Amino acid sequence: MQDTSAFAADDALVVAGRRYRSRLLTGTGKFKDFDETRRATDAAGAQIVTVAIRRMNLGQDPNAPNLLDALPPEQFTLLPNTAGCYTADDAIRTCRLARELLDGHKLVKLEVLGDARTLYPDVVQTLAAAERLVADGFDVMVYTSDDPILAKRLEDIGCVAVMPLAAPIGSGLGVQNKYNLLEIVENAKVPIIVDAGVGTASDAAIAMELGCDGVLMNTAIAGAKDPILMAHAMKLAVEAGRAAFRAGRIPRKRYASASSPVDGLIG
């Protein structure tokens, strides 16, 4: 019998040349306090945590609680994001601020929103910002729509990971277009990480079963009745979905197929 613990050991997520055992990335907003943020992060087993630079204190205010005390950079890979930005210029300024606050940190999550109601990405501004940030030496993980052509364009620009939405941010609707995600995954040479729209553990498992390299979530955990328990559930779902993808599911059929052979039955 195979040792299943070996599967995880040889199946690292690689982002910008760095290896991670966890394929679940988590956010740091919407929790009641930094203690809950830390406990949920631990329960999720997350190693990459995303931080909204324009909303979170990373030392800008010495009189306020500092997220870095709860999630020290020595223990977690911080992923500064440009949440709340609606233009390429604003997103670029935010990334440069993050680099300054975090002592030259290069890994960022780019998101440029199109409007405040849907929080859909503005793909024109996203492309413009991605080109400039890559040219400026940033390692860009980019939030985008589930358009396969756009995803490939962002990869070609030099983004280190492409992060298509499963559904609108915070909606909890789950994966709405499996076929677009499949097309993105099958044509990608960089990690594809579902970002936005996950509501519960089965949604995360579906994304991973489709072949996505990881899932990023915040609201699904922070907004749950028990965020710590939900974080644990999401950890298991991502691991199960990844294992199922690697194992290879059986083909779907419209008719029954006996589990045991019918040849050689007694009588």
TrEMBL record:
Alphabetized UniProt keyword annotations: Cytoplasm, Schiff base, Thiamine biosynthesis, Transferase
Binding locations of 1-deoxy-D-xylulose 5-phosphate: 170, 196-197, 218-219
Cellular component, GO, one term: cytoplasm
Pfam family membership, one: ThiG
Family annotation (InterPro entries): Aldolase_TIM, Thiazole_synthase_ThiG, ThiG
Catalysed reaction equations from the record: [ThiS sulfur-carrier protein]-C-terminal-Gly-aminoethanethioate + 2-iminoacetate + 1-deoxy-D-xylulose 5-phosphate = [ThiS sulfur-carrier protein]-C-terminal Gly-Gly + 2-[(2R,5Z)-2-carboxy-4-methylthiazol-5(2H)-ylidene]ethyl phosphate + 2 H2O + H(+)
Active site: 109 (schiff-base intermediate with dxp)
Subcellular location field: Cytoplasm
GO molecular function, one term: thiazole synthase activity
Its EC number(s): 2.8.1.10
HAMAP family registered for this protein in UniProt: ThiG
Stored PANTHER family: THIAZOLE SYNTHASE
Family indicated by similarity: Belongs to the ThiG family.
Function noted in UniProt: Catalyzes the rearrangement of 1-deoxy-D-xylulose 5-phosphate (DXP) to produce the thiazole phosphate moiety of thiamine. Sulfur is provided by the thiocarboxylate moiety of the carrier protein ThiS. In vitro, sulfur can be provided by H(2)S.
Subunit structure and binding partners: Homotetramer. Forms heterodimers with either ThiH or ThiS.
Protein name per its UniProtKB record: Thiazole synthase
Organism (species): Noviluteimonas gilva
Gene: thiG
